[in-house]
Amino acid sequence: MKAIAIREHGGPEVVSLVELPDPTPRPGEVVVAVKAAALNHLDIWVRKGWPGLKLAFPHVLGSDVAGAVEAIGAGVEGVKVGDAVVVNPSLGCGRCERCLSGDENLCRRYAILGEHVSGGMAERLAVPARNVLPKPANLSFVEAAAVPLTFMTAWHALVARARLRLGETVLVHAAGSGVGVAAVQIAKLLGARVIATAGSDEKLRRAKALGADEVVNYETQDFVQEVRRLTDKRGVEVVFEHVGKKTWEKSILSAGIGGRIVTVGATTGYDPLTDLRHVFFRQLSILGSTMGTAAELVQVLRFVGEGKLRPVVDRTLPLADAVKGQALLGERAQFGKIVLEP
Fold first, then answer.
1. Is the entire prediction scored with pTM above 0.85?
2. For 2-147+311-341, CATH number?
3. Core-most of 96, 101, 300, 335, by most CB within 10 Å?
4. What is the biggest distance separating any 2 CA atoms in the chain, rounded to whole angstroms?
5. What is the helix, strand, coil percentage profile of the chain, to 5?
6. What residues have CB less than 8 Å from 333, skipping those under 6 apart?
7. Residues of the chain predicted below pLDDT 50
8. Which CATH superfamily is domain 151-288 in?
């Protein structure tokens, strides 16, 4: 089969279209014929590598997959060949107390498809049968592939960690990114007021169309001043952070007394300065959040199927153009998701 893989860490030059053996399902697994695989910034970070990340090369990139079940391993029930599915990229051991309690993203052996184990930018993918869920009938395979990682991440962060409530105000950074697009919609679904930031007026226009109540161009405006103006100097109850170093210090200043800052990533850097005086005196909560659970993805897919949440696809590319897609992500040239088609 054809796949997008790396054999070492590095720049775009280490990413290539390769031929790999077709997977066969082990007991409890299914093989999915991949119809669409979405890109994430995670793919770029995995390509570059970081201390402690140990991969078996060649490593196939890609966390977001939609396709059709092609083969079934021994002992699999409830799934049949031909089923249209979305793959849950969240991989727990399935046996520990956390997994059995439904908190698999707290499992000590937790892994993310495409990050710790080979992913789905390929013609076929073998995964545990419990990790395939029915594709909403109202979505194409391309649209379905744009859902899992970013919507799970935003849902877990806003619902489970920050506990965003009806009537609260949330600041969502980089509203044109995949996770930003998801966060804006989820916050509105919960009845919150959304202040969205982005780096261009066109992205802000599209964020408004998704439901953002107020928008701020962080390239031309000071978002702390704008937040203070829009909240009568109170600040927001929740900050949805995933930008990192570039926005972190001002995100702390944007939170009101007793506010919650939930962080799901650090695209621009992981080592920002934190003025602890603001944290303890204004009693801020800083919350980390990684991915989500299978139950949360089921909830997300239900709302997607009802049309209350919708994936946003910026463009599709052939599988062989994965490097071009990564470049577009790095340049922040997209609004929503870039999806590859094998």
1. yes
2. 3.90.180.10
3. 300
4. 61
5. 30, 25, 40
6. none
7. none
8. Medium-chain alcohol dehydrogenases, catalytic domain (3.90.180.10)
